[in-house]
Design a protein that fits this description.
By secondary structure, the protein is α+β, with helices and mostly antiparallel strands. It has helices spanning about 5-10, 15-25, 80-90, and strands at about 25-30, 40-45, 50-55, 60-65, 70-75. Strands 1-2-3-4-5 form a five-stranded antiparallel sheet, covered by helices on one side.
Length: about 110
Amino acid sequence: MNAVDRAAVAAYPEIGLLLVIRDAGWRFLPPAPGQDWLDGFRAWPGGWRDGMCVRSVGDALAIRTNPDGDLVWEHTGTLVDVVTELLVLPVPGDPSGPRLVIGSSPER
């Protein structure tokens, strides 16, 4: 952790969670003027993407989309909850990972 990171964590301890996932390959977008949330993403080989939106320490969202852009996983909760789930979410293609299942009904 560099001096800037240490100063940020000293002022706002929850930033430490964002540094953990940043170091795991996540990137964060600069907020647009007037934007009061933080967006982040992780791009996986093959076109899979994980996304995150943090509005506050108590309000965060994480998603995973497949290469077609379909939502295959979503988790909402506190920043701690969301980061914890992202850190244990299996990589795309892992048999235990989320995937889109499209149901069908029997033809009559």
